[in-house]
Amino acid sequence: MTLDHKKLAVIHIVKRELDLSDDDYRDILERETGVRSAKDLDEKGFRRLMRAFAASGYYRINKHGLTLRQKMYIGHLADDLGWDEEHLKNFLNKYYHKQEIERLTKGEASKVIESLKNILKRE
């Protein structure tokens, strides 16, 4: 059975977020699942591919351990707050002395997430 369109979309979002070339993406896909197209994946292959992304250096945004999941969650929380990119950038600069999400360490990103969640609770 093939994957539903939502899971295929997740794969392609991750590919884009990780800035993988098409060749690199297909090589990872083939190495981990035995297929060269996400359309040929089943549920087991999807889980294997996602675990491979999570366990590999590809899943890390920077050398300080920031993960794609953290980056996406921070963006989601900022959207929930109604913040534009400039507002988020100013927040990061003021409290974390970083100009952009990609410069955060894994620990800093965790603190940013908790801060944004607390701000959201108060609103």
Descriptive report:
This is Mu-like prophage protein gp16. Helix 2 (22-33) packs across helix 3 and helix 4 (68-81) runs parallel beside helix 6. This protein has 123 residues and is mainly alpha-helical. It contains 6 helices and no strands. It folds into 2 domains: 5-59; 68-122. Helices cover 66% and strands 0% of the residues. The chain has helices spanning 5-17, 22-33, 43-55, 68-81, 85-96, 106-122.
Largest sheet: none
End-to-end distance, in Å? 44 Å
Classify the secondary structure makeup into a structural class: mainly alpha
Q: Residue ranges: pLDDT <50 for 5 or more in a row?
A: none
CA radius of gyration is: 17 Å
Tell me roughly what share of residues is in helical segments: 55-70%
The fraction of residues in strands falls at under 5%
Give the total of beta strands. 0
Shape: elongated
Q: Number of domains in the coordinates?
A: 2
Number of separate helices: 6
| N-to-C SSE string, H for helix and E for strand | HHHHHH
Mean of residue pLDDT values: 89
Protein name: Mu-like prophage protein gp16
Pfam families: GemA
InterPro entries: Phage_Mu_Gp16
Organism: Desulfocapsa sulfexigens (strain DSM 10523 / SB164P1)
